[in-house]
Design a protein that fits this description.
It is a single chain. The protein is elongated. The protein is built from 8 helices and 15 strands. Strand 1, helix 1 and strand 2 form a beta-alpha-beta unit. The mean pLDDT is 95. Helix 5 packs antiparallel against helix 7.
Length: 323
Amino acid sequence: MSTHPPLRIVFFGTPDFAEASLRALAASEHEVVGVVTAPDRPAGRGQRLQPSRVKVAAVELGLPLAQPEKLRTTDFLATLDRWEADLYAVVAFRMLPEMVWSRPRIGTVNVHGSLLPDFRGAAPIQHAVKAGVSKTGVTSFFITADIDTGAILLQRAIPVGPEATAGDVYQQLMVEGAGLMVDTADALSDTPLDGVPQSALLTGSERPAPKLFRQDGRVDWRQSAREVADFIRGMTPFPGAWTTLNGATLKLDGALVSESGESAPGGLAPGDCHIEGETWWVGTQGQPVRLRRVQLAGKPFMDVPDVLRGYRYPIASLGTDGH
């Protein structure tokens, strides 16, 4: 027996993070009347056209699909109108113009991978982990003209462990976000909601979460050990944490801060290395960190002991320009 009046929903999304929410909505009491995702893009060595994860799910579920290159065309807007949606649901999609998000009678809601208003932007999970937070979460809110600033509807929080990577948190929030999207649709189907204005929640300590690129993953060994370890976690797996070793790129997956009672070398300058048996220490601004897994150029990621057994060059320092 249905407990919520079903809504007609158009879903907008592209990657696996969005796919989870689409599948959850499709399995709910609501009706997904259309799906909008990115056009197929060339990928891989052969540059063959590949569909998005959301498209694959939509086809599997037998849902109407649109893949517009541009969101303002007459044809696309006519498609939206034919679907006659009560609500648009958006997860990990590009910015919508007002002529799109203002169309449905209830509005357009987005699920964002942070506890807004903290970490507004395109990379909230990476920036939260990099900042060393002990908890983060997902937020549903109404889309307005300014990105990530609309009135908040619902939130779910999760703890973030001291060794969790951005990839680990991404997987958790993907599941939480899917549940939150259904909860949000349920709440909006029961009664009109205005949400809580984010302006009422601002404290002045909010942190931005802009899009990240490869160069943003370079480790600064002049930071503290905790900051270095958190940075590497936040950049894993994307865009990837890296430094240089003997002039070549060295990618990093995990750095551990020495625990109480653990014997760690002293006096290491930032970036300087100390090899002790199968352990690789690197100096920071303070105590050193212990590397866990690394990737040499042209090689897969390997545990540090395996790398040390096979690497035939000096390991004196990381970084070639002071950090």
